[in-house]
């Protein structure tokens, strides 16, 4: 494919790694490509990072036709840059697109775009411990009319941001509140798609949790409010006795790529992993009788993040004395080891940037 590259005349100064935080600084360029139901994808281009101009009737501004992805490029000790499982993000984006009636991008094309864009921006991949270049692809409906229907025009954009840790706590345990009022998604809805609307609908509960000192909420299923689903920006796993339990992909939770990777690592090391229904009652019992040994969240931004406290109906349950447990630590070390190229990638997950 042809990608027209227009370079920025003045390059920005790279930020100090210590000040990165998450998603606040952006690189010099961005990728853009348009789609029309008759022409297909056209006008693939890399341009200087700038504001996007939209027609005030643009579909995305009224009806929320938007999906996004999140993946990272990592700087190895030898200076090379590599991405983690980008093909999985491409496939998930296409599944999200199918759900929202947005256009899909052929896998080869989407991969070539990632490689070209990251290769151009690779100097922005920081090298300090725990830092990476976060890529945020997003795709939105861009018809200039107010009718409600599948879109005929869409735009695909990728921006990139050098990031540190997502939570202020870093690798230290986070506190999570179990939400029993609002729900995030229901089966048949958009829970499995990575669409902006899911996050907009999550904000009220997130704000309530934040006011009580919690980092995020743990969602229960939208029908019975009985089964554990996932946390605001990560999937969740529990070590109950010797079993690792994670909610099964029922259609209402996001099929996380970190979740999938954790399961593969755990199985390769001989752990018993169950993807199944986990009720709040079973979890509460395990919290009370001490069989809940560890809990953690996993996601691209959050990496592997220990959960040190759960709060349900105003009762606080500390987990593993608020400390990171051995399985959580093993997963963190293995995944980050592969991502930063410190340990051999026996799974074939890494894509090196030329
Ligand atoms: N669940 C939600 C709601 C998320 O936003 C994310 C982050 O992308 C995840 C789970 C984890 O997904 P992944 O590991 O693919 O980043
Ligand atoms: C990610 O981990 O990539 C996410 O998309 C989480 C995010 C909503 C910050």
Question: What's the short story on this structure?
Answer:
This protein has 354 residues and is an alpha+beta fold. It is built from eight helices and 18 strands.
Q: Describe the global form.
A: globular
Number of helices: 8
Gap between N and C termini, in Å?
17 Å
**pLDDT averaged over residues:** 96
Order of helices and strands: EEEHEEEHHEEEHHEEEEHEHEEEHE
State the secondary-structure class: alpha+beta
Instruction: Give the cofactors and ligands.
Output: pyridoxal-5'-phosphate, 2-OXO-4-methylpentanoic acid
Q: Largest sheet at a glance?
A: 9 strands, mixed
Number of strands: 18
The unreliable regions are none
Q: Indicate the percent of residues in helices.
A: 10-25%
Strand portion: 25-35%
- Round the Cα radius of gyration to an integer and report it: 21 Å
